[in-house]
Amino acid sequence: MLDLADGETVEVQGSGSSVYTLKNIGGVFSCTCPAWLHQSLGIEKRTCKHIRAYRGDAAETARLGTAELAGKPARMKKEGEEDDDAKEGPPLLLAHKWEMDIELAGWWMSEKLDGVRAFWDGTQFISRLGNVFHAPDWFIADLPKSPLDGELWGGRKTFQRTVGIVKRHDKPPEWKTLRYLVFDAPKHGGTFEERLVHMREAVGEDKLQYARAHPHEVCRDLAHLKEELARVEGLGGEGLMLRKPGSKYEAGRSHTLLKVKTFHDAEARVVEHVGGLGKHKGRLGALLVELEDGTRFNVGTGFTDKEREHPPAVGTVITFRYQELSDGGVPRFPSYVGERIDAKFVSNPKPKAPVVQLFPKQEATATISKRRFELHDEEQNAFWEIEVVGNKHRVRFGTFDQTPTAKSKTFETEEEAQREAKARIADKLDKGFHEVE
To answer: What is the pLDDT of residues 275-295, one digit of tens each?
Structure first.
């Protein structure tokens, strides 16, 4: 088989028309494919089907040993088969959002945990994408040999700290601050009520040092739901999970499991670091991020001082919280939650909308341009737009929770209008606004 010398790179053909670059730096082999980039392992322990195909299974096994990803060699996909990291992970039950279209009286209600989802296969913790969480032996010593579904949890508002602990490979003592909260038994086969009994017998209150059965109660009615949601969110919790009575455990998204939250959360990929101003000068001001459909916007709140000094790297997938979507599909009042180590990001850009002219059609020689800028920080979430048509330009500005203000101005010449527009844009950039598509 071929191999790469230290410092050498080579391009290889992926599935379809994709071309990826393999590189060897000091014995660390990397690939630009999504499967390699989105692993939570250290870069020296990663591999993928392209590296294996180029170097050979024997060479990769000799380099890495037998423990990779989910504790087994990466499966070689057939030509044309879709790359889907989620298929390598355990078959987990996933929730839908509650759209207020289902009566939840009688459903089982529990707090939605802000931790890291972990499947216990009887010997080790596995993430949603099939990566192993390297827990210390003393943390897992008393866990049963039967599979469990739960969350590695360090308490409310500690998501980023929890992620930092579980993604390490050196089994740090900080695992003592975590608990494994069990909310299901995937292989039991019974109804949810029967699985609850099984969980309480296996990891009931005070039975194990580092594992607990997550408490559930029956939702009486809508008033009870709202009361519990307000209580949990008031304590800094994420929201609630509702489980349909008598339901079985099924892999994939199911309407037997619903999440109820006042605020929404989502994932986005970091595209750029936007420098800060004022008290944040010299460090991160905001993250320019991109949704899977290509929508870009700034996330400027929710960061600690340490995170502003050492922000998530470009290309990282983050979780953010937001209130609602604007008419253009942009999350309103986005706030940073933390990096994700178990999220799959698939870019699927939406078609660009046609340009909307805010002025009557001018002569064919007129130049038309429209640009938009946004500012998201602790104090405001604002936008500012300018469109130039011939010797006129119009601006729209305001905050996302108010009706925007529109103003227009006519100049003697097109050149003067363009000059004025550039000056106003420069002023907005100096004030911390960032241009968006």
So the answer is: 887 778 888 988 999 998 888
DSSP string, 104-131: -TT-EEEEEP-SEEEEE-SSSEE-TTSP
- Residue 178 has which token pair? 């975590």
Q: What is the pLDDT of residue 38?
A: 76
| DSSP at 44 | G
Q: Does the active-site annotation cover 281?
A: no
Mean per-residue pLDDT, 406-412: 85
Q: How far apart are alpha carbons 415 and 1 in whole angstroms?
A: 63
Could you give the CA distance from residue 113 to residue 116 in angstroms, rounded to a whole number?
8
Phi/psi zone of residue 421: left (φ > 0), alpha (ψ -120 to 50 degrees), beta?
A: alpha
User: Cβ(73)–Cβ(61) under 8 Å?
Assistant: yes
Domains of the chain: 9-85 (no CATH), 93-260 (3.30.470.30), 264-339 (2.40.50.140), 368-436 (2.20.140.10)
Using alpha carbons, select from 191, 162, 183 the residue that is nearest to residue 174: 162
Of 152, 140, 145, 138, which is closest to residue 182 (Cα–Cα)?
Answer: 152
Statement: the pTM of the whole predicted model exceeds 0.70: no
Contact of 273 with 140, CB cutoff 8 Å: no
Give the three-class secondary structure for 392. Answer: strand
Residue 384 is encoded by which pair of tokens? 């500012």
Which one of 45, 77, 112, 352 is the catalytic residue? 112
**302 close to 337: Cβ distance less than 8 angstroms:** yes
